[in-house]
């Protein structure tokens, strides 16, 4: 089960991800809220279980935003269901203003896949951090698929530095809160092995 989010602006709709498990239901859900066109798609990262229905949103003029690493993965995948991003950025941060709505896209390291983004909507106090953790579930799956486990540990601290009330984390039918991130951080902290003790014969 997957989740994602969209934001209605004055002129259109900004969508984060297009998961194939939602398929056409994502479009139906948006149409229930607004008749406005989808103007922007932001790819949280390149994995097909989150953006594998992006082709359903594709139309002339659709802006597809992603980190350049994500664009590279999509290009290498040769998957018609994942159209290539047409607005990419490199580095750690890109702030965009779309019809007066402010979104901050941040790449702080590959805690899940190179190019994975924190997408922060400061006015709405929403943080979208797809595949960062699973709300009210054990994080073994997240740890298993983290590119770099130390980056995964750091990601929990990074998330808690944002001003948010709701976190969209990509799986199960639940949205989270800062307290849920704190619980996950505490849980993985308990799993973390202590640093090796220095032995006399090493020194
Ligand atoms: Zn993923």
Characterize the structure shown.
The protein has 203 residues and is an alpha/beta fold. Helix content is 27%, strand content 21%. The protein is built from six helices and ten strands, in the order E-E-H-E-H-E-H-E-E-E-E-E-H-H-E-H. It has helices at residues 24-33, 48-51, 68-77, 140-144, 149-159, 178-191, and strands at residues 5-8, 13-16, 38-42, 63-67, 87-89, 93-98, 101-106, 118-121, 126-128, 166-168. It has a five-stranded mixed β-sheet with strand order 1-2-3-4-5. The chain has a five-stranded mixed β-sheet with strand order 6-7-8-9-10, with no helix packed on it. Helix 3 (68-77) links the parallel strand 4 and strand 5. It starts with a strand and ends in a 12-residue tail after the last helix. Bound molecules: zinc ion (ZN). Zinc ion binds at residues 45, 47, 50, 112-113, 131.
């Amino acid at each position: 089960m997957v989740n994602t989010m969209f934001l209605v602006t004055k002129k259109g709709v900004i969508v984060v991800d297009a998961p194939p498990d939602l398929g056409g239901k994502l479009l139906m859900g948006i149409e229930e809220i607004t008749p406005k066109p989808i103007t922007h798609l932001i790819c949280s990262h390149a994995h097909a279980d989150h953006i594998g229905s992006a082709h359903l949103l594709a139309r002339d003029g659709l802006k597809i935003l992603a980190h350049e690493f994500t664009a590279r993965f999509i290009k290498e995948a040769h998957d018609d269901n994942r159209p290539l991003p047409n607005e990419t950025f490199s580095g750690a941060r890109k702030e965009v203003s779309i019809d007066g709505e402010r979104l901050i896209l941040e790449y702080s390291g590959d805690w899940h896949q190179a190019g994975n983004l924190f997408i922060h909507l400061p006015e709405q106090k929403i943080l979208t951090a797809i595949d960062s953790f699973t709300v009210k579930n054990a994080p073994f799956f997240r740890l298993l698929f983290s590119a770099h486990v130390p980056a995964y540990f750091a990601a929990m601290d990074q998330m808690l530095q944002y001003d948010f009330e709701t976190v969209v984390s990509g799986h199960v039918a639940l949205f989270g809160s800062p307290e849920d991130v704190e619980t996950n951080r505490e849980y993985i902290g308990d799993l973390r092995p202590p640093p090796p003790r220095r032995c006399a014969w090493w020194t």
